[in-house]
């Protein structure tokens, strides 16, 4: 039984999904949630392959949290507009096509919306970060994704779903 299970896993992992290659012109959309010490970010993003194994795109994010300082409650929101570039290492590592491993950089504008009476720092600004992530395609065009990174709206990481086009 163990051999049959292992055989089925290897066969299923080796199935070729033509949509999941990152050839120039292929595109995908990501939706998900992030991990942060300041609320739970939600995000949506789009990337397209501008060269084989290299994608460029953007991501929009939002998170909200409440803070209590000396008995005063403050509600904060952060909106992120981020540009991203990723290199997909599948070809280099000779991975099965239902896996996608990537690394890249991001540059974003973060807009803080806090009450004017808030005593802390809530200034908007630019952020530069890096990310490493992966996707597992469970059919020809749908995947689950997991990413870790720093310097962005979901600085601890994120997870969600991906749809290829």
Please tell me what the overall shape is: elongated
Helical content band: under 10%
Low-confidence stretches: 1-19
Q: What's the tally of helices?
A: 2
Fill in the CATH topology: Porin
Tell me about the largest β-sheet.
8 strands, antiparallel, barrel
Widest sheet: strand ordering: 1-2-3-4-5-6-7-8
Distance from N terminus to C terminus (CA atoms, Å) equals 38 Å
CATH 2nd-level architecture: Beta Barrel
The tally of strands reads: 8
Average of pLDDT: 82
Structural notes for this entry:
- InterPro entries: OMP/PagP_B-barrel.
- The protein is built from two helices and eight strands.
- By secondary structure, it is mainly beta.
- It has one domain: Porin (Beta Barrel).
- It has an eight-stranded antiparallel β-barrel with strand order 1-2-3-4-5-6-7-8.
- The protein is elongated, with a radius of gyration of 19 Å.
- The termini are far apart.
Provide a short characterization of the protein structure.
It comes from Salibacter halophilus. The chain has 165 residues and is mainly beta. 10% of the residues lie in helices and 59% in strands.
């Amino acid at each position: 039984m163990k051999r049959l299970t292992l055989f089925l896993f290897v066969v299923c992992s080796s199935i070729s999904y033509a949509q999941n290659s990152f050839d120039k012109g292929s595109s995908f959309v990501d939706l998900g949630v992030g991990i942060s010490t300041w609320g739970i970010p939600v995000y949506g993003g789009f990337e397209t392959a501008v060269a084989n194994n290299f994608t460029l795109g953007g991501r929009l994010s939002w998170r909200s949290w409440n803070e209590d300082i000396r008995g005063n409650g403050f509600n904060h929101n952060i909106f992120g507009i981020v540009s991203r570039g990723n290199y997909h290492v599948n070809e280099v590592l000779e991975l099965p096509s239902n896996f996608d491993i990537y690394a890249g950089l991001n540059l974003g504008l973060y807009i803080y919306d806090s009450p004017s009476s808030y005593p802390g720092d809530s200034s908007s600004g630019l952020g530069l970060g890096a990310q490493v992530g992966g996707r597992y395609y469970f059919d020809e065009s749908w995947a689950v994704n997991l990413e870790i990174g720093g310097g962005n709206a979901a600085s601890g990481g994120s997870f969600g779903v991906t749809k290829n086009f």
